Write the structure tokens for this entry.
Amino acid sequence: MLSKVRLGVVAELLNYDWVAFSELARVLHVSNGNLGAHLSKLVDAEYVEEEKSFVNRRPLTRYRLTKKGRDAFAAHVSQLASLLKEAT
Amino acid sequence: MERIDAAQARDHIEMVDRILAESHPRLCAGGDFFVVWGVASAYITVLFHLVDIGMFAARALWSVPIVLAAAALYSVLRARSLNRRIARTSLVQREFFNVLWLTLGVTFVANVAAFRIFTGIAQAALWSIAEAIVLLYIAMHGNRRAQIAGVLVVVSLVAANFVAPDRTAYVLAAGMLAGYAGFGISELLAAE
């Protein structure tokens, strides 16, 4: 999760049940290709769950944070905070 | 762990703080559900009363399961459709639906299976209580219209307790329409 984009994705998913790919791209201000690559890594790590469906014949891909992802986020933020504390 | 420096760590934490601060999961009540169930419950309440006083034949009560089934089917189909269209569904939203289905489900079971305990107009009052719970739950998450609507339903319950018996059903139905369905209409208007 070290990448800033991946961290941003997980933070966005924290308070929501499902978030659409397009919504993530919009709020994080990243290109679809870039976001897709980061989401693939998160899905492979089982931090994020992916769901693909169709709405009005248009593909819809949504993402949800898993418990593993939630725990990893908490651990990562804690490590970042420790790093900051050591530096000051 | 790959190394990042303190400046990057600070930047990452600030980004997380900003995202979480801007995240305002809103409880979307879906006005049409409330209109459908408010009208359905008011209809059933008044119908039972009119059959009870002999104004309608008992066979008119066959419309009750049809109305309930139609309302339930609409709710399920509409919920599925909405769930897929919404760009974000919050955890609060998911909990709200759990509360909603639990409250309405238990009330339905009490209506159908505890008819010897909840007799006559008490059956209708059960729906008023369920509706008040749902509205006040939404109100707890900051929806002022739901607060007013919930209070309206509760007031109708209290008022129904004290009016003449031949008016009780109408007062309860008025609470269901003004409170539950009325809240639904206000949500639909606010969404436009």
Remarks:
- The interface with chain B takes residues 2, 4, 7-8, 11-12, 14-20, 22-23, 27, 53, 55, 60, 77, 79-81, 83-84, 86-88 of chain A (CB under 8 Å).
- Chain A has one domain: 4-87.
